[in-house]
Amino acid sequence: MSSEKIILTGDRPTGRLHIGHYVGSLRRRVELQNEGDYKKMFVFIADAQALTDNIDNPEKVRQNVIEVALDYLSAGLDPSKVTLFIQSQIPELCELSFYFMDLVSVSRLQRNPTVKTEIQMRGFAGESIPVGFFTYPISQAADITAFKATTVPAGEDQRPMLEQATEIVRRFNHIYGPTLVEPQIMLPENAVCCRLPGTDGKAKMSKSLGNCIYLSDSAKELKKKVNSMYTDPEHIHIEQPGHLEGNTVFTYLDAFSTDEDFSLFLPEYACLDELKEHYTRGGLGDGTCKKLLYNILNSRLEPIRQRRAEWEKDIPAVYEILRRGTEDARNVAAQTLDEVRRAMKINYFDDAELIAEQAKRFRAGTK
Q: Are residues 72 and 124 in the same domain?
């Protein structure tokens, strides 16, 4: 069964990718490509989906396609192991979305927690919600099913989307016969990574809130952001006991640190638990914890920065990788759409039996 696993995941090109993307999904994608425990792996740039709430700023989406591609490659995705493609260049996805719209009610979309959250974040109200944005769970289901993905690495916030995709698959297969594959979500193994908070302590790292650490940030930018991170507002003096809950520095240490990091950057402590114990009893300053976090994050981001610098020297090569990947992806999606049309009995010109039957019926004068 493992050899039949098909992995699909992607990101909206609304800006550079940040470390929330990295620990939430991107790091796992790199691990999966190197494990090789799958039949095929697709990673795409969801530009068409990004246009649903950036329709008045297409240049933003256009420019960020290459930014996301650079982030993918610099993070370690290997185009010889992974198919990288651009969503808008696969017209079969639009066709499949159109068919799926008949399988989902407006009330079901309104109940989707992810949709409700995203609508609130963007300030849409009532009839001002763009139809394309409102129906993006359907579009996402098309992205997944067009490639018969069995596994979707994603954060916890995407669980409702996967549940809706599964509902669509089941309804389609119930009506038209077994055609599509039900997907399963693959959450980060470290629960903290499911939803990394912003540097300001807000619930979610978000480009629009300006609380992100980007994969492409320089060491100087990284240090500035780490030094300004939200900690324990009651921990005014070093000797005071500190609190871990809501302390962003410790949340990030939970997500990134290993025992080896302590031996390298803070050998006075054997592991994170020892650091937490000292912080909560008092006598440990936030500056020491932030310095440790900076060193850890910088050690993770430095090789990413170096790879990005190399890829930036040959942008045409990056577009060629995307072109080849998109061509490969479209061939796969076209095969799925052929099966979908046959199941729905709308493959009129390819159904020789139908044509022969109709010809016979009309020759016999039957209507």
A: yes
> Do 304 and 319 belong together in one domain?
no
User: What's the CATH code of the domain at 229?
Assistant: 1.10.240.10
Beta bridge partners of 11: 45
Helix (H) or strand (E) holding 363: helix 352-363
Q: Which two tokens stand for residue 286?
A: 């936030």
293 Cβ partners below 8 Å, 6+ apart?
Answer: 226, 229, 249, 252, 253, 256, 257
Cα–Cα distances (Å) from 135 to 91, 208, 244, 260, in that order, read: 17, 22, 39, 45
Q: Is residue 41 part of a domain?
A: yes
Among the listed residues 88, 105, 109, 226, the one whose alpha carbon sits nearest the alpha carbon of residue 161:
109
Kindly list the averaged pLDDT for each block of 10 residues, start to end, along the chain of length 367: 78 93 88 90 96 89 97 97 98 97 92 80 72 90 97 85 95 98 87 80 80 96 96 93 95 95 97 97 96 98 97 98 98 98 95 93 79
Q: Which domain holds residue 286?
A: 219-310
What is the number of domains present in the chain?
2
Residues 6+ apart with CB under 8 A from 325: 79, 83, 84, 85
Rounded CA separation 32/30 (Å)? 5
Q: How far is the C-alpha of 309 from the C-alpha of 330, rounded, in Å?
A: 30
CB 250 within 8 A of CB 289: yes
Q: pTM, whole model, 2 decimals?
A: 0.90
**Total length of the chain:** 367
